[in-house]
Design brief:
The complex is a heterodimer.
Chain A (H helix, E strand, L loop, with lengths): L8 E12 L12 E12 L3 E5 L6 H8 L7 E6 L2 E2 L9 H4 L2 E4 L3 H4 L6 H11 L6 H10 L16 H13 L5 E5 L7 H18 L2 E6 L2 H7 L2 E6 L2 E7 H6 L4 H9 L49 E2 L7 E2 L14
Parallel strand pairs in A: 3-8, 3-9, 6-7, 7-8
Antiparallel strand pairs in A: 1-2, 1-4, 4-5, 9-10, 10-12, 11-12
Chain B lengths: L5 E12 L2 E13 L4 E5 L6 H9 L6 E9 L2 E2 L5 H7 L4 E4 L3 H4 L6 H10 L6 H14 L5 H4 L9 H13 L5 E5 L7 H18 L2 E6 L2 H7 L2 E6 L2 E7 H6 L4 H9 L37 H4 L2 H4 L5 E2 L7 E2 L12
Parallel strand pairs in B: 3-8, 3-9, 6-7, 7-8
Antiparallel strand pairs in B: 1-2, 1-4, 4-5, 9-10, 10-12, 11-12
Helix pairs in contact in B: 4-5, 4-7, 5-7, 7-8
The chains are: A alpha/beta, B alpha/beta.
Chain lengths: ~325, ~325
């Protein structure tokens, strides 16, 4: 159970599908919401992987499958080199020691009737450990809070502090991998920067790895080393963050990046304004899921769904597109 | 510059609560001219949304509003409700953040847009319906003639926001107040809505007051910016004054705290320590003083004396409320 994987893979999702449908009757499966539709995803030790996409892209569902909060409809979940797809109940506890989750809304994910001390000791007790006060204080200090906060209740804290408590709780079992689902989207800009810096500090101090699920591409750029872009339940592009941000290959990534406003008044940017909305994940388009909104669409796009293939001469940077954007000419790599 | 259509002078909004009087807005001034966009920027509790609600006369009864709100020179504060109703939605319209709760799920979108028109125009249902189709078409609802009979739940978030904007614009208002109009939307849809607001402003010459916490959106659409902190104006000026010549430590902090998508990341974001104060908790001195990194350069005055807006170098009427008379040097 505790064998260390040679490649130091912390997480591997193999061909994961997650359909939300009505149980039982097969004729109802046609109505299933295909939230995640065939995703391969690997996180190695020391990586910070950004998982971005718009609402309905399946990024949060994928995060929940990865942390075993949801069972995949198909495919497998390996955590620390061990297949845990079919591990359930109490047997999942050793798994949870390796991978923890931080949720978007600290207001909703902290029990209002428990003191911070109780909240932080719950994960210890789930692992059969009675934490000492010193351990709890150390956790609080790791996230920039102090001993005096131990007896207080969630409502006595600001949004940013609550998110710190959520992070401290996730750190309590000393996980290798933290999956953060929109960790800063509920926070004010000035507080958001504090939490992003904290995540970076924890990565450096504790050697943590992250999966950062977010819709805000600027936030993700600040902290990630690798980026995966999701659209309608599939990963359409992935690669080293600096490569994807500076030279996106998939038309969707390019449009998405161009849509993010930049704080430089008077500077005109080449913006690709996509028309229409994301199609329903109940009946995604045939072939490429993005073809209904794509500015490069051809007949072939409606035939077979394109798979991730290396682009720009890099083995790590891959895009699922028949007509990927060319690399910029001044590219040095 | 053109004559302002909306002018606000020395606006104060005070809420009476169980905990005492809470000054949510503590003396702000702004104005906006036809075709221009003023952005009001601030974090939670800065009073930006309360200011816009005060302009519309939409505050609950425990709020006391003083000051001047002039629409084409006509004072709105103190107007009886039936007079205000003639102005709201007709001369000044409001677009909210959450389009789903701004629409009634029981009525078709066309009915709701037509109703907004009929409230201020004595026309038949048929004429109002035609007007609704025209407006929905104008805000980019595809196949508007058919979609006019759809219900809000049949629309996506971006389409709903378009319906709300159609409803706000149906009476050709002189002023449109948009309170975080794109915050709930995905970036690709946000880009569509920003372009739409830009287009309607050009076509109708509407004055736009944009309330936002997103400096990227502000940089893109605003002509002038007012930065609010704890119910007060921290800084105001043209959009270029704010982004290239920020004179208030808070504005500078906000700009530094914002991660950017278009350049490789800095090793660390600059942060503002602490959290925004709750309204009314700081009654003397500068409200930003407890979080400010420059207080030591000024001294006691920051704690004892409330800074007023004073002129700063810039393009237009660039002003900042800070005792540090010069531009703060970026720390680190």
């Amino acid at each position: 159970m505790t064998t260390q994987s040679v490649s130091e893979e912390l997480l591997r999702l193999k061909n994961v599908r997650k359909y939300f449908g009505l149980p039982g009757a097969p004729w109802r499966q046609a109505q299933a919401v295909k939230a995640v539709d065939g995703v391969n995803f690997v996180v190695r030790k020391g990586e910070t992987v950004g998982l971005v996409g718009e609402s309905g892209s399946g990024k949060s569902t994928l995060a929940r499958v990865a942390t075993r909060l949801l069972d995949p409809t198909q495919g497998s979940v390996e955590i620390g080199g061990v297949d845990v797809t079919n591990v359930r109940g109490r047997k999942l506890r050793p798994v949870r020691r390796k991978i923890q989750m931080v949720f978007q809304d600290p207001q909703a994910s902290l029990n209002p009737r428990q003191s911070v001390g109780t909240i932080l000791s719950t994960p210890f007790r789930a692992q059969g450990i009675r934490p000492t006060r010193a351990q709890l204080v150390e956790l609080l200090q790791q996230v920039g809070l102090s001993e005096e906060h131990l007896e207080r209740y969630p409502h006595e804290f600001s949004g940013g502090q609550r998110q710190r408590i959520g992070i401290a709780r996730a750190l309590s079992v000393k996980p290798d991998l933290l999956v953060c689902d929109e960790p800063v989207s509920a926070l004010d800009v000035s507080v958001q920067a504090q939490v992003l810096n904290l995540l970076a500090d924890l990565r450096d101090e504790l050697g943590l790895s992250y999966v950062l699920v977010a819709h805000d591409l600027a936030v993700v750029r600040q902290v990630t080393s690798r980026l995966a872009v999701m659209y309608l339940g599939t990963i359409v592009e992935e690669g080293p963050a600096d490569q994807v941000y500076s030279a996106p290959a998939h038309p969707y990534t390019k449009a998405l990046l161009s849509a993010v406003p930049v704080p430089e008044p008077g500077v005109e940017r080449d913006r690709i304004v996509l028309t229409g909305d994301v199609p329903t994940p109940i009946a995604p388009p045939s072939g490429c899921p993005f073809r209904t909104r794509c500015y490069k669409v051809q007949d072939v796009c409606a035939t077979v769904r394109p798979v991730l293939e290396p682009v720009h001469g890099s083995t790590e940077h891959r895009a699922a597109c028949y007509f990927p954007e060319p690399p910029p000419p001044e590219r040095t790599r | 510059m053109a004559e302002p259509v909306l002018e606000v002078h020395d606006l104060h909004v005070t809420f009476t609560t169980e905990g005492g009087l809470v000054p949510a807005v503590d003396g702000i001034d702004f104005s906006v001219a036809p075709g221009e966009t003023l952005a009001i920027v601030g974090e939670s509790g800065s009073g930006k949304s309360v200011s816009s609600a005060a302009v519309m006369g939409l505050l609950p009864s425990n709020a006391a509003t003083t000051g001047e709100v002039l629409l084409d020179g006509r004072e709105l504060i103190g107007l009886p409700n039936d007079e205000l109703r003639k102005i709201r939605g007709n001369d000044i319209a409001l677009v909210f953040q959450d389009a789903l709760s701004a629409l009634n799920p029981y009525y078709s979108v066309g009915w709701q847009v037509a109703e907004a028109y009929r409230l201020h125009h004595d026309v038949s249902k048929k004429v109002a319906h035609r007007r609704a189709v025209e407006m929905l078409d104008k805000v980019g609802i595809p196949d508007a003639a058919r979609r006019v009979d759809s219900y809000p739940h049949e629309f996506s978030g971006g389409m709903r926001q378009r319906v709300v904007i159609a409803m706000a614009l149906v009476n050709d208002p002189r002023v449109l107040i948009a309170d975080e109009p794109t915050t709930a939307l995905d970036v690709t849809v946000q880009a569509q809505i920003i372009r739409l607001l830009d287009d309607v402003q050009e076509e109708f010459g509407t004055a736009l007051v944009l309330i936002s916490h997103d400096l990227g959106v502000v940089a893109e659409v605003a002509d002038d910016v007012l930065v609010m902190y704890a119910g007060r104006a921290a800084e105001r000026g043209t959009v270029r004054d704010l982004f290239y010549r920020a004179a208030h430590p808070y504005s500078l902090g906000l700009l530094g705290a914002m991660p950017r998508v278009d350049v490789p990341p800095k090793p660390r974001l600059t942060t503002i320590p602490g959290t925004p104060p709750s309204p009314g908790s700081i009654r003397t001195g500068c409200p930003f003083q407890p979080r400010c990194a420059y207080t030591h350069l000024v001294g006691e005055r920051c704690i004892t004396e409330r800074p007023e807006l004073t002129p700063r170098p810039g393009e237009g009427d660039h002003e900042a409320a800070c005792h540090l008379g010069r531009r703060p040097e970026a720390l680190l």
